[in-house]
Amino acid sequence: MFREDDRIVVAISGGKDSAVLLHILHHIEYAFPDSTIIPVTIDEGIQGYRNKALESAESLTRSLGLSLQIFSFQNLFDYTLDEIVRLKPSKSVGACSYCGVLRRRALNIAAKELGADVLAIGHNLDDEAQTVLMNILRGDSSRIVRTNVSREDSIPGLVPRVKPITELSERDIVAYAYYLHLPYHNVPCPYAEAAYRNDVRDFLNEMEYRRPGTLLATIRSSEAITEAFKQSLQKWSFTTCERCKTPSPSRICKACEMLETIRR
């Protein structure tokens, strides 16, 4: 995932997963003086929530002798997430869908501006298993391939993404953070209550309890699906979004499509 002289941008949300990721990477990269770690937080603009998470992120980065870089939805897209939720059509997708698409765009913009060789994301085992199952239940299993792209197969125009802690369970993440007293924000996002992910999480948690190993087996299945798609005759090609000029599987990328909906 990393090379000895990498400039690594680490996505920091203020939560436990990214706190553990940054703490681990900081200790590993200490042995490689030619590498650089740059923590980045995306401020979506969620009143009463993001400011607390920012405090935790800043506390953690200070304790590690690092400087936190902050990029915001407001500056990048002209809208905060709170404003997007108020403006979006009532039958449109939920807040989490807007946030997820725009956060990915924001992180890529930030990583490019900071000259990153690679972007590290703090998705844990539970997160990844949930994402795999969500894509299958939505009939969008091909998306599994696009989210399992290795650094060597990265798409030009997108900073390569790596997920170093995807085989660490949420329980282990919590234990690590608690034992080392890492500062992190543990309050759920106010928009998460209605998220589709919650139903999938409950199901997988129950299955993991009844059938230990379910989460890891789900990840292994996604890897098999990815290999099967790669070996098929179907070719996955990206074009360039006509509006923002970033790589996109369609003529207009999802981020631009969403922002146009809000502007209208």
Query: What is the count of β-strands?
Result: 7
CATH class: Alpha Beta
Count of individual domains? 1
**Percent range of helical residues:** 40-55%
Distance N terminus to C terminus?
41 Å
Q: How large a portion of the residues is in β-strands, by DSSP E?
A: 5-15%
CATH 2nd-level architecture: 3-Layer(aba) Sandwich
User: Structural class of the secondary structure composition?
Assistant: alpha/beta
**What summary fits the major beta sheet?**
5 strands, parallel
Spatial strand sequence of the major β-sheet = 3-2-1-4-5
Question: What does it look like?
Answer:
This protein has 264 residues and is of the alpha/beta class. The protein has a single domain (7-263), classed as HUPs (Rossmann fold, 3-Layer(aba) Sandwich), CATH 3.40.50. The chain contains eleven helices and seven strands. The chain has helices at 16-29, 50-63, 73-77, 81-87, 95-113, 125-137, 143-146, 170-179, 196-210, 214-231, 254-263; strands at residues 7-11, 36-43, 69-72, 118-120, 161-162, 239-240, 247-248. Strands 3-2-1-4-5 form a five-stranded parallel sheet, sandwiched between helices. Strand 6 (239-240) and strand 7 (247-248) form a beta hairpin. The chain is globular and about 45 Å long. The mean pLDDT is 90.
